[in-house]
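lol ok so funny story. i was supposed to be doing the assay writeup but got distracted and ended up predicting the structure for this chain instead. priorities right. anyway since i did it might as well share w the group, maybe its usefull for someone
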Amino acid sequence: MWRDAGIGRLRLSADRRKEYGGSQGSGGAGVAGRRLTDFRRVSAGPTILVVEDAAGTRELLSAVLRHAGYTVVVAPTGELGVQFAAKHQPAVVLLDVHLPDIDGFTVARRIREGCGAHVLMLTGDDDEQTALRAASAGAERFLTKPISPKEIVAAVETALTGPRPPGAA
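and the output, tada:
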């Protein structure tokens, strides 16, 4: 299970870390003893772009999605997220609301204009105003932390089986 580790960070319990092969935090080894980097592309399924500034959360989301068979591209900032979306044309973008350079709402609008990917916003904010802003920015789903790995994968699978968003190629 995901556990709230304070300040919007997610952690996997010890048994889940072993199952997904991930590390706990940004300093450890990634899946199969490899360290995850911000710009590595791995796996072979549909491409999922994870835009998340917290390194530990980014690694955990990446490990969960790779374990589910997806190709994962990760970006630690909103600007890189927009660039990577244009370059890699992901099927789904999992996007944090609070990013260090530009807010997730702006990133969602720019990504939707550029590639038409399904946008799922992930945040620790569980309030109606943030959810409404996410919807108006083009997000199809608003997911709140803490969230289980199964819920993340289910949200991505639901997005992939749904109709392409407006503006999609």
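The two ends are 36 Å apart (CA to CA). The beta strands are 2-4, 10-12, 47-51, 71-75, 92-96, 118-123, 141-144.
back to the writeup now i swear
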